[in-house]
Amino acid sequence: MPWEKKEDKKAPTYSTVSALAMYKVMTKAEEMFAEDGSVENIQFRRMWLKTFSKQIGCIHWSEAEQTVFVGFD
Question: Does the CA dihedral 51-44-57-67 come out positive or negative?
Answer without folding.
Answer: positive
